[in-house]
Amino acid sequence: MSACLQVFARLDAVQRAAAEDFRAAVAQAVQLRGAAHIALSGGSTPLGMFALLAESPYQDAIPWADVHVYWADERCVPPDDPQSNYGQAWQVLLQHVPVNPLHIHRIQGELDPQIGVDAYAAELARQAPPGQVFPCLDWVLLGMGADGHTASLFPGQVNPHEADQPVIVVTAEYQGRPAQRITLTPLVLNAARALVFLVAGREKAGALADVLNGPRDELKLPAQRIHPPDGTVTWMVDSAAAGV
Ligand code: 6PG
User: Do residues 117 and 169 touch, judged by C-beta distance below 8 A?
Assistant: First the structure.
């Protein structure tokens, strides 16, 4: 794994850098393999990046017809719920770009959670190369909570299936958000070619320092579970989160 930390003075610079990194990763994937399989996360930090991608130059420069969109996690709510990660991405980005609707592989948060897990796992398998059960994701956007969680992998919780199942149900309280969630596991995330964490705000400085510089404690700090053997991890953070 190669990891790097990029610190920017302000959140808008983080979002611009992430948009450019996304564009470059998609261009390379499409050139080499004819398609780009990317996964988004929810939360507020990526919203500015989504908005940038929905307008020029990115709206025109990215081969959206060759992009497959997945989610790292989803809250167990309907797609039109304000708390839906898919709904947020659709409102701010996807409805504004010419992505093929058949290439939007959302997690069906409106279903019974285990049914939603099974449906997403089946969709991942349909998109996978022969003999595989999920596609190798070219670019994954991740956030991190002030508690060190990422996607819907939360402190103090280790599902026994994290290592052998691509998708699991999680129940976790965080900032009043829906507690029931569906998440990709490290099995899928650590197979990705590139993962980009977007982290901003002083309230995350402690967790970020612990995750990057503290002792390994994957139970306490789930963001430390992200260590792709062959992929890259890039932390794009603002100065407040970096504590500088
Ligand atoms: C979710 C996200 C979650 C998010 C972090 C950071 O469904 O809530 O996937 O992992 O990325 O909680 O959220 P903020 O960007 O709002 O701080």
Answer: yes
